[in-house]
Amino acid sequence: xxxxxxxxxxxxxxxxxxxxxxxxxxxxxxxxxxxxxxxxxxxxxxxxxxxxxxxxxxxxxxxxxxxxxxxxxxxxxxxxxxxxxxxxxxxxxxxxxxxxxxxxxxxxxxxxxxxxxxxxxxxxxxxxxxxxxxxxxxxxxxxxxxxxxxxxxxxxxxxxxxxxxxxxxxxxxxxxxxxxxxxxxxxxxxxxxxxxxxxxxxxxxxxxxxxxxxxxxxxxxxxxxxxxxxxxxxxxxxxxxxxxxxxxxxxxxxxxxxxxxxxxxxxxxxxxxxxxxxxxxxxxxxxxxxxxxxxxxxxxxxxxxxxxxxxxxxxxxxxxxxxxxxxxxxxxxxxxxxxxxxxxxxxxxxxxxxxxxxxxxxxxxxxxxxxxxxxxxxxxxxxxxxxxxxxxxxxxxxxxxxxxxxxxxxxxxxxxxxxxxxxxxxxxxxxxxxxxxxxxxxxxxxxxxxxxxxxxxxxxxxxxxxxxxxxxxxxxxxxxxxxxxxxxxxxxxxxxxxxxxxxxxxxxxxxxxxxxxxxxxxxxxxxxxxxxxxxxxxxxxxxxxxxxxxxxxxxxxxxxxxxxxxxxxxxxxxxxxxxxxxxxxxxxxxxxxxxxxxxxxxxxxxxxxxxxxxxxxxxxxxxxxxxxxxxxxxxxxxxxxxxxxxxxxxxxxxxxxxxxxxx
Amino acid sequence: xxxxxxxxxxxxxxxxxxxxxxxxxxxxxxxxxxxxxxxxxxxxxxxxxxxxxxxxxxxxxxxxxxxxxxxxxxxxxxxxxxxxxxxxxxxxxxxxxxxxxxxxxxxxxxxxxxxxxxxxxxxxxxxxxxxxxxxxxxxxxxxxxxxxxxxxxxxxxxxxxxxxxxxxxxxxxxxxxxxxxxxxxxxxxxxxxxxxxxxxxxxxxxxxxxxxxxxxxxxxxxxxxxxxxxxxxxxxxxxxxxxxxxxxxxxxxxxxxxxxxxxxxxxxxxxxxxxxxxxxxxxxxxx
Lengths: 663, 287
Description:
- The structure holds 2 protein chains of 2 kinds.
- Helices cover 28% and strands 25% of the residues of chain A.
- Chain A is of the alpha/beta class.
- In chain A, helix 3 (46-58) crosses helix 4.
- The radius of gyration of chain A is 32 Å and the shape is globular.
- The model of chain A has no long low-confidence stretch (mean pLDDT 95).
- By secondary structure, chain B is α/β, with parallel strands linked by helices.
- Helices cover 47% and strands 10% of the residues of chain B.
- Chain B has helices spanning 16-28, 44-50, 52-68, 79-94, 96-106, 119-125, 127-133, 154-157, 167-174, 193-196, 198-214, 225-233, 235-242, 253-260; strands at residues 2-5, 32-35, 73-75, 115-117, 141-145, 178-179, 219-222, 250-252.
- Chain B has a 4-stranded parallel beta sheet with strand order 2-1-3-4, sandwiched between helices. In chain B, strands 6-5-7-8 form a 4-stranded parallel beta sheet, with helices on both faces.
- In chain B, helix 1 (16-28) links the parallel strand 1 and strand 2.
- In chain B, helix 3 (52-68) packs across helix 5 and helix 11 crosses helix 13.
- The radius of gyration of chain B is 19 Å and the shape is globular.
- Chain B starts with a strand and ends in a 27-residue tail after the last helix.
- Mean pLDDT of chain B is 93; it is low at 283-287.
- Chain A binds chain B through residues 342-343, 345-346, 462, 464-466, and chain B through 161-164, 183-184, 187, 211, 214.
């Protein structure tokens, strides 16, 4: 006969005001198997827990029902308390009297009865509970950081400085990300590359960091502490060990007219190239789509000229599988293109550019060496219009959210333009100025007050070309909606920040959740902002939501702290709520008949085939076996099993039936 | 092919040539038009700002009559009419209680099943047939002017690209014309200010006329009676405002297609225009 204790909590007024807790405690005394029942104002408080522990000892209880709030809130608290009193923590269950009863019902007799019923159900369950023991799994102390922008670099450096190995995977030929493309950064106007490139070099030279550039994550198996990640190392068509980065091949490549991604299409590059002079690693790749040899079978100029013979035209992609303990996603964002704005001419005009293109125009390493020249004819623009919220906060563009960084970089752009073209006129059309951040609002005021940037509150309805000018038609809503028409030489659209190309596929590969817009979802918006719902996978930067550099770096250090914390354990403890295939004595061995429907149903690839062999090595029966390290306890296999051979520990069929039969 | 026809007031009055040319072109293309019996005013630009219920009841009666006549689809060439009919139909579909009240007011059952189409949609369906039957290609540069009511509000009319529509340009290409790259396809012509504030019309329509000529257009092509009145009937005021004699004609899309199909200009009502439909070497400007 069980000796179960029932502890009913008032949760202050939360439960006590609606449910007659004393009566509930009284009613529970009559449930068969209940040896002790009591109510208390705050069961989770220290005296409450102590009272519970004393009762367990005094009444020799072997199971406990705590009737209080949601198990999401305090199950760990009470299980710990029960364990300290010498009872297996999985012999403690919580009846949710708050969310499931007092918060959703009126005060009354029926409500009190429902509370008692919720307890009765769990008393019956506990009678069928078995003591369970946490599963211990080892930890591989190597982290993988996906994305080599400023966020990824920061995560990698922090973990590496914490003494752990890091593999930094970047899909493009160099690390550096968007930040390496920026001219100067707000709110200090310091040169972006000058502050980033030392970090890039540091990451490349760190003994604990392995760089895998021009590589993409293809497959992720396993679980926290024990991931197996397959990375595709795309063929650079080059022996990286032999290449010295002399750049002769780039100089002599005859194919020089390829649109340059790093310069956002405003410049050209060769078919064998490094994205930018400060690239890390400074080793070129061959763009096989544009290389003359791959198109016509002739050329090979680079191979003939390479002093170390490093070119490898026949090189193929390579798949590498790595053992990884934790993964940090830092895959960044993409900018909406200018061609999705019919009102702004579908991007047909070369002089309507996006914010990143302006960065390249303003950058000393850009196609104009930082001299302000408009893309169409290379003339210095005398009037430039900046349009904030281009696509952002616009439901018709599918982007109802604020892109967060545009108010600041638009102010910066207008300022940079005024610093380069003193006689020029800069106008900014805006909806609201969102400059929350240290020294941010002061920065915007500086643009307006010191650099004489004209801010106009209103939207632009149309831009059209006339006599070599761009006529910008807008409204000044602070002047009663007065129409404004500006004849500009160049227009810069602060286009929306969107989730990066391929982010949804990557999320599916890693089994992490993502939102409607393709941004990766954090485990809790306030309290767990750098974790995903998948244990062992963390987030940093704009892959989660639009972010600026300071926030990205802060979040990156946060994610790194989580990883270092995880790696400080020798082994990890997991909840034993996993499925098991039953085992019987020979000759049945199990109810499992080896149909393996469960194997295809399991979303976590946790089920494998197990052969039962005789002493002579002959296979007698093939059964399903569930890897407790991989099983997430979802129960899909239990529902699929035709012979009821699988049960979920802690939620067995027997336990659930017992609960139902009580009602 | 048989289709219901709702001409509305403009096509009987100031824009008779739109009615004439629509009938002539559709006849030539083998489309039979069946007028909605006993039709009434759609409410035009006044009803919906004066009395909401009236602005729904008037179109609802037209649609109910069309249903009674067994029509499944009606063509409303006037952009304002088709816009009013569509707006009312959608609002009644969303609000069943309003629909019941309106049915009571018009003393007729109303289902809301009739499909409302504008002239460009009908011509677009017949584009292949038009291309086949072209006898005299209209080899002019044209500015296709859609105005506001054909494409807006996009959620109501759900027609073409609201910022940069294409259907008329493609039709004009099919009859041999060359549409100019024009940013003012949907700019305001001054609309109903045609009567009360001709100075505003002169300014707004003047911008359209001037830019069309500057971009090398020989004609402005429209699909809305109100646009046509402003660009044609108010040309004197426009030219006064611009201090220049712009002679670029404003033509209905049906007139352009009619000419290309080799129909008699009189049957297309070309003689009714204030600005003569003549094409001079000076690209529409006569000083």
